[in-house]
Amino acid sequence: MCGLLTLIKKDINENEINKFKLSLNKINYRGPDFSKVVKKENILFGHNRLKILDLSDKSNQPYEYKNFILLFNGCIYNFKELREELKHKYNFTTTGDTEVLMYSLIEWGQEALNKIDGMYAFLFFDGEKIMASVDFFGEKPLYLYQDNDQIMISSEISPIKSYLKEKLQVKRNNDQLKEFYHLGFLLGEKTIYQNLYKLSNKKIYFIDDQLKLDRIEKKSKISKKFNIKISDIHDELILSIKNRLNSDVLVGLFLSSGLDSTLLATIIKKELKVDIDTFSFYEKKESETIKYLKSITNYLGIKSKVINNLSHEFKNQDFKDAYQDINECDTYFPYYEMCKYLKDKTNIKVILSGMGADEIFYGYNKYEFFYKYRYLYKINEIIFNRIIFFSKIFNLNFLNKLKIFSGNNFARFLKIKNNDHDINIEKIYEFNFKKEIFEAAREFDIKNTLPISLIPALERASMRFSLESRSPYLSKKLLDLVNNLEDKSTFFKEQKYIQKQILRKYLPEKYIAKRKEGFFYKNPSVFKANTKLQNKYELNLKNFRYNQRAEIYDLFQ
C-alpha cells in the first residue's frame, strides 16, 4: 500500500533534504495519494501512501504519536481484533491498521510480531532507535544500504540508487554469478550491489543514530495442533480469503486456469457471497484454457476479463527500469503486463492471487517425486550415481526419472558437487539428512524461493502500477495447519489433493480434473542467447533459462 524511505546520517543539511525528497519521488507510484518527509535530528523519514484502508488523511504517514514515528507498508489482517485488545488503553482516531500497528509496537515491542497476522514492512522509531521488520513470508520488501557515513532503508532500490548515485556499485563477484545462474536468485540478504542488503524475513533489525546495526533472529512461536482435518484447512482458508477482501477500495482476482485461483474464486462467490471481477491473460485468442475460463466464470456467475491483446515490446531500457533487484527476473514481466492493464483500464486497487499455494500444499511435481523415491535419496552417493548411470544406459522408465534431479537440480538438495558451476552446494542449501527429501525441498522453497524470487516479482509489478497484491495462501496459520497434518501421504493421493477435496464441495468434477495450461507468456525478445559470459565463466548457456539469466546479469554490468 505504500513506499517508504529513511536516511540516518550524522549531518543532514538542506541540500540533503532536497536530495532525499527527489529520491522518495522515484517511488511515488507506490503511493500516489499522499507524500511527506519528517526530520528528527539526524534522521529523515519519507513515505508515499496508497490509500487502501481508512481513506481519510488521518492515516497518512509518517505516522506520529508522542515521540514515536511509524513508516508502514502492507496490511494487518487482524487489526480489528488487535484494536479490541488495545482500545481500553489507547484512544483511536482512525479506522485503519496503521494506528493499530503503532500502538501494538508501543505496547508489546518485539512480541507484537507474534500477535500480528499480515503482510508488512515497517520502520518503528521509539525516540532512540529504529526497529525494522518484514513479515513471515517476506511479502513486503525493505532494502538497507550502509557505509561509514549513512544508513538508508527503502521499499525499493531505486531511491537509494538515486540518492547515492555513483556510490552504489555493482558487485563483480564470480561466486555470486554462479549462484545466480544456478538458482535464478541470490540467497539470504545479498543483492547485486555493494553494501546493499535485502532485509531478511527471519530477522529483526535495530539501528541507532550512531549507525550501529544489529540483526536479531526472530523468535517465532511454534504451535503444535493435533487431529487436523481437511475441514480445518478449509475453514482457515475461508478466513484468510475473507481477511484479504477487507478493503475500502475495489478488489479483483488474478484467475488462471489452475486449481489454486479457481479455489479462491469459488470460495469468494459460493462461501463468502462476494462478487469479484477476475482477470486472466493468455496470448492465444482461442484455446482450451480460454474456453475453460469462460465456462467456470459462467458457472460461478462472476465477471471475467481474458486479456490477450498485449503488444508492448520490451527494450533493454525497459529491463533496466524494471529490474532493480536481480532476484525479480524470472517472473516479473507477465505480472507487469497484467498490472499495467488493471491500472490503465480498471478502478481496481487491490488484486488477489494464488501465490504460494504450490509451496504450502506440496503442489509441485518435484515434491511428489521426492516423496515417491524418498528412500533412494538416503543411500550412498556413489551407489546413487551408479543408479543414475544405468538408468541412462538402459533407459529404465522409473529410474530414468532420477536423472531429472541429478546434477544441477538434484544438487539443490544433496551434498553433491555441481560440476557445471562448482559451487558449494552443502554450504548454500544446508541440507539436513535427518529430514525427508520432499520436506527439505518444500522448506527450501518456503524459506528462500518464495521470499527472495517469486513474491518480489509480483509485489514490484503490482506496486509499479499502484496496486496492492494480496495472497490468501500466504497465511502463517494456514501453513501451521498443513505442517501439522501427520500423514503427509495425504498430499500425494493425487496432485493438489487438498484443493480438489475442497473444490468437490462446490464444483462438478469436470472443473476439478482440468489440467493447468499455465500462466502463458512469451518471453520478451531481449532474452536471447548471450555468449559474452560463456567463455569467461565456462558456463553452459545452451539451456534457455541460462540464456535468460546471462542477458539479465549482463544488463547490470
Structure explained in plain terms:
- The protein has 22 helices and 17 strands.
- It is of the alpha+beta class and 557 residues long.
- It has a six-stranded antiparallel β-sheet with strand order 2-3-1-9-8-10, with helices on one face. A six-stranded antiparallel β-sheet has the order 4-5-6-7-11-12, with helices on one face. The protein has a five-stranded parallel β-sheet with strand order 15-14-13-16-17.
- Strand 13, helix 7 and strand 14 form a beta-alpha-beta unit.
- Helix 1 (14-24) packs antiparallel against helix 4.
- The relative contact order is 0.12.
- Residues 402-433 and 533-542 have low confidence and may be disordered.
What's the arrangement of secondary structure elements?
Layout: E1 2-9, H1 14-24, E2 34-40, E3 43-49, E4 63-65, E5 68-76, H2 79-86, H3 98-108, E6 118-125, E7 129-134, E8 143-146, E9 150-154, H4 158-164, H5 174-183, E10 196-198, E11 203-208, E12 213-217, H6 230-244, E13 251-254, H7 259-271, E14 277-281, H8 288-300, E15 304-307, H9 316-322, H10 332-345, E16 350-352, H11 357-360, H12 365-372, H13 381-394, H14 397-400, H15 407-410, H16 425-429, H17 437-464, E17 468-470, H18 476-483, H19 497-503, H20 509-512, H21 534-537, H22 544-555
Parallel strand pairs: 13-14, 13-16, 14-15, 16-17
Antiparallel strand pairs: 1-3, 1-9, 2-3, 4-5, 5-6, 6-7, 7-11, 8-9, 8-10, 11-12
Helix pairs in contact: 1-4, 2-3, 5-22, 6-18, 7-19, 10-17, 12-17
What is the CATH class of the largest domain?
Alpha Beta
Whole-number tally of structural domains? 3
Count of DSSP E strands?
A: 17
Low-pLDDT runs of 5+ residues are: 402-433, 533-542
Looking across the biggest beta sheet, what order are the strands in?
2-3-1-9-8-10
Query: What name is given to the CATH topology of the largest domain?
Result: Glutamine Phosphoribosylpyrophosphate, subunit 1, domain 1
Oligomer designation: single chain
The whole-number mean of residue pLDDT values reads 83
Provide the CATH superfamily of the largest domain. Aminohydrolase, N-terminal nucleophile (Ntn) domain
Shape summary: globular
SS element count, helices: 22
Radius of gyration: 24 Å
Largest sheet: 6 strands, antiparallel
% residues in beta strands: 15-25%
Helix content: 25-40%
C-alpha end-to-end distance = 32 Å
The secondary-structure class comes to alpha+beta
Which CATH architecture of the largest domain? Answer: 4-Layer Sandwich
